[in-house]
Write a structure and sequence with these properties.
two-stranded antiparallel sheet, 4 helices, 7-stranded mixed β-sheet, Glutaredoxin, alpha+beta
Length: about 170
């Protein structure tokens, strides 16, 4: 289990539109927000990522880079971005199950025909520029998601008070 202040696993994913996104190359002022999502089959993910897409600029204003990542194939990730109307949010795809498990994500098997063979359940990680974990929220279902407005408020408080990571003992 990754705890706050631990180094996070290496993360490199292909992105919709081309190229490879590498966490180690990100140099935000405060954090990189890595949002792992279930995939194109998930209507809750659509709503969640649309909300995040609308807030990307507000996260960037707070010194926080943002990416959403799934185990989807390139085709499914491209469909998610286009069909869902996602504009500025970087979408990464092709996350390997082994890598998802390194991050502590839960893996599910399909219960409906539209779901892929295996996929990760949601998780949100705030990673410091030095590659260490500040905080995480991991889910076992598509429900009970965090609100990005609350995350932005937390970032504001962390910055204003130089609030330390918690839960690292």
């Amino acid at each position: 289990m990754i705890k706050p202040t631990d180094a996070v696993p290496v993360l490199e994913v292909a992105t919709v539109g081309g190229g490879t996104w590498k966490l180690a190359e990100q140099k935000p002022e405060w954090f990189t927000l890595v949002e792992f999502y279930r995939g194109y089959h998930c209507p809750r993910c659509k709503l969640h990522l649309l909300d995040l897409d609308h807030k990307v600029a507000r996260f960037e204003e707070r010194g926080c880079g943002v990416i959403a990542v799934s185990m989807d194939t390139q085709e499914r990730a491209e469909k998610a971005k286009s069909d869902w109307g996602i504009g500025g949010l970087t979408i990464g795809y092709g996350l390997a199950e082994e890598k998802a498990r390194q991050w502590g994500l839960y893996i599910s098997t399909p219960i409906q025909d539209k779901e892929p063979h295996d996929f990760c359940e949601p998780g949100m990680f705030l990673v410091r520029p030095d590659g260490t974990l500040f905080s995480k929220v991991i889910h076992t279902t598509p429900f009970h998601r965090h609100h990005f407005a609350d995350v932005m408020e937390a970032i504001d408080m962390i910055r204003a008070r130089d609030y330390p990571p918690r839960g690292n003992v």
